[in-house]
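User: Second chain of the day. Same drill as before.
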Amino acid sequence: MRFAYLLAGLVVLVPACTDPIPPAGPPTIWTRDSWFEGQPNDVVLAWAAGNYCPANDLTHCQSAPQAVLEVDAVRCDGCTVVNDPTHGYTGGLQTVKVIGTTAGMTAVITTDLTYLPTGETSTVSTSVPIDREIGLGAQCALVDTELLHGVIANDGDLSPVLRPCGSTRGANDAVLVFPYVSTLRGQTVFPFLADGATDLSDHPDQDVRPRSTLQFSQPPDGWWTANLQPTGPSLVDFAYFTAPSASISMQTQLTSGSAANATVAVPPAR
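Assistant: Same format as last time:
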């Protein structure tokens, strides 16, 4: 009877030890809506996977080699592949880093993939317009200086109390300057972020840069962040001036390599 009990146990356990092959979901490819000429961009390839496998290391997979994505080929028209992931395998995700070559053109990246658990293959592709930075500009706003300091001290939001620079500037008003970069495709981007506050090398927006790359004719009193929605981005860094001169000039180097300048006319206090 004891032998029969053990045998029965084995009959029960055998099916439990046989994992079904995980089915393949739809393969996908994703990247930013547009690329900047000469700048690196991430293209993410994905195919549904049941288990995560460290890149190129099946020995630590929970059920190797199941649920593994392999990249068989990468073709890039209008762009250059920086890291070639061909024949590498991951746990369902693979990032390809590419550089768009010519502004005004559209890059097309195509990849051949294999879902190793079942051997299924698929080809996925996406197209991305390539942009170029062409100029520097700034939006301008006014706010009471005491109110500005109070909001900053309490880590608050200035957005509801901002006034355009075209309105009357009071004697106690500070001037806020929101520097931006304009592009060949007509975009307005706000790429200047706090120095040292973020690892910009790993930022999802490849065009961001530290504030120190922007030079002012008059040093700002400080920097803060405001919400420009619904007409602009949700979070934008701005420089503020509590005793501004009649105009504030700025200069920076664009990612295209050319220098750009802009000047903000400060309304006189009344």
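The longest helix spans residues 2-17.

User: Great, on to the next one.
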